[in-house]
Design goal:
52% helix, mainly alpha, 0% strand
Length: 112
């Protein structure tokens, strides 16, 4: 007898757990991303949601490392800014940063 695959629950319910991003909203954002986007396959929002979750996880881990280096247990906006500045893969986020936060604190070179 054939068993359901790993992603079967995602396609039926739209979510696989309490921490997953809503697939309907992702699909709506994808459709609004350009005039040439008319149809989106069923698997595309699932893959995009997973990529977003991994991105958020990585950014949070890097930001938490900055928080711990500052000997604090509360994550602040400046910790996220420092993590973005110190990590090469987040260079595409520079234009979104608050430039006042950038000027106040130099980047931490230990975060990699």
């Amino acid at each position: 007898m054939r068993q359901a695959g790993t992603y079967s629950g995602l396609l039926l319910s739209g979510r696989s757990g309490p921490h997953c991003l809503p697939l309907a909203r992702i699909k709506k954002i994808m459709k609004k991303s350009g005039d040439d986007v008319k149809m989106i396959s069923g698997e595309a929002p699932i893959v995009f949601a997973k990529a977003c979750e991994l991105f958020i996880e990585e950014l949070t881990k890097k930001s938490w490392m900055v928080t711990m280096q500052s000997k604090r247990r509360t994550l602040h906006k400046d910790d996220v800014v420092s993590a973005v500045i110190a990590t090469d893969i987040f260079d595409f986020l520079f234009s979104l940063l608050d430039h006042h936060s950038i000027d106040d604190d130099p980047p931490l070179s230990d975060v990699k």
